[in-house]
Amino acid sequence: MTERRILFVDDEPAALEAIRAMLASQTEWQLVFATSAAAALEALEAAPFDLIVSDIRMPGTDGIALLHIVQEQYPRMGRVALSGRTDRESIARALSVAQQFLSKPCSGSGLRLQITRLCDLQARLNDDLLRAVLGRLNKLPSAPTVYLELNKAVAKPEVGLAEIANIVDCDPAVSAKVLQLVNSAYFGLAQPIASIHQAVLYLGVDLLKALALTAHVFSKEQIVKLEGFSMSMLQEQSMLCAQLANRLVDDQGLGDEAYAAGLIHDIGKVAIAVGMPKEFAEVIRTARFRKVATHVVEKEILGVTHADVGAYLLGMWGLPLAAVEAVAYQHTPGAAVAGPHPVLAAIHLAGALVKSAYAREDEASLMRRLDLPFLTDAGLGADIPTWYALAREQLTPATRRRQLS
Predict the structure, then answer these.
(1) What is the model's pTM?
(2) What CATH number is attached to the domain comprising 95?
(3) How far apart are CA 258 and CA 243, in angstroms?
(4) Among 55, 145, 182, 353, which residue has the least CB neighbours within 10 Å?
(5) Residue 54 belongs to a domain
C-alpha cells in the first residue's frame, strides 16, 4: 500500500497533539503538522501531500482561505475542514472549498474513517488530469432560472421552508450541495438524510440563505454552453428520472432516497462539461455521429464515465452510500456487489426510460439499454412497457414541441 501523506493545520498546538495521539497507530500514514496557514504552505511547497485537514478559524490567513489556495494550487489533494459546531456561517463559506467537514473535538475513529474514505475515493480515479480537474469542481452551476428563483425566495423576510425546498428540489447541483452539507460529519447525524425536504428542514432558513447567497457555491458564472448539451434539458431529464424512480421503489421509505438519487444521477455530466468543456464537446459529437450512448464514448476518450465522476464527487461530499452506488452503477448495475439494491434498480430503469423517451426510441432500443436479469431479480422486469409509456406521457409540453420540430 502506498503511504499517504496528510497535513494537519491548527493554530492550537494542543489540538494537533491530540490528533497525533489519536492517529499514532496509523503507521501507513505519514502525518505532518502545522500551526498556521503560512507554515502549511511552506510544507506544501516542500513535498506533495494526499490530504489536508485544517481548522477553519485561525488568526491571519484562516482555514477557508488556506483551503481555497490548496484547491487552486494543489487540486488533486483531498480537503477536510475542522470547525466548532456553533460556527455555521463559516461552514457555509467553506462549502465551496472543503470536501468533508468534521466537528471539533473529533473522535479518532471518526477522523480515521473520513481520511480513509477520502483516500480510497481518490484511488478510484487513476487519471491524473481528470483528478486535477475534479479537484476544482466544488462550484457546480445551476440553471439560471433556478438560481434567480432561489435568491428571490430567500430574500423574502418570512420565506417558508416548503417554498425553498420546492426550489432546491428542482435542481441537481443545488440539491447535491444541500445533501453534501447535511450529511457531512460536521453535523454528526445518526442516520444519513437523502430527502431534500428533510435536509432543508434540518438546515433551516438562515443557513440555506447563506448557501444561496454565497457566490462560491451557487455560481452563475460557469453556465455550460456547448453544442448538443443543455443545462435546462438535463434538469428536465433529472426531474423526470427522480419522479419515476420514486414510484419504482416498493418500499416507500426509500422513495425520498430514490428521488434524490434520480435528481443527481447525471451530475457527473455537469462536472465534466464545466471542467473539461473541449473534451466533453468531442464526446457529444462522437456519440451523436456513432449513435451510441454518451457514457460509452466518455470511457473511450476520458477513461471514465460521467457515472464514475458523479459517484466520485458525491462520495467525496459524504452523500449516503445508496445514492453514491446508484450513480456509480447506473449503467452497469450488475457490477455492483451482490445483494438487494432497490435504489440502484430504480435509477437504472428510470434513467433508461427517460433517455429513451427523450430520444423517441422504440421499445427494442430501450431494452438494449437495460440489464434485464438485474431488473428481474429486483422485481422490476415485468412492467417495463407500461413504465415506458408513462415516461413518454410525462414529457413536458416544451419537450414534445422540440421532438416534433
Answers:
(1) 0.75
(2) 3.40.50.2300
(3) 9
(4) 145
(5) yes
